[in-house]
Design goal:
84 residues, mainly alpha
Length: 84
């Protein structure tokens, strides 16, 4: 079925608004990512974009926290916590 001129224009407009990023992981890593996306019930693109968004949010939160002196170091072991 041929694509209408209106659909062609819509496709061109859509593609102009989108970015294109190419990833080339090793075969084993790519397969693991595809499997994880399928297990999560997401498309590969959706899974990767969600992972990127979560990482960016975490990095932003850590950067914001680095500017403040934090007195809560519950996750950081002290020398006394390392000894049995």
């Amino acid at each position: 079925m041929p694509i209408s001129e209106a659909q062609k224009r819509a496709n061109i407009a859509y593609n102009r608004r989108q970015d294109s990023i190419t990833l080339r992981p090793p075969k084993e890593t790519g397969a693991a990512i595809r499997t994880a996306a399928e297990a999560a019930g997401q498309s590969l693109q959706g899974y990767i974009l969600q992972a990127c968004a979560e990482r960016m949010a975490r990095d932003q939160a850590q950067a914001a926290g680095a500017g403040q002196s934090s007195s809560t170091t519950e996750d950081t072991p002290t020398p006394t916590q390392d000894k049995p």
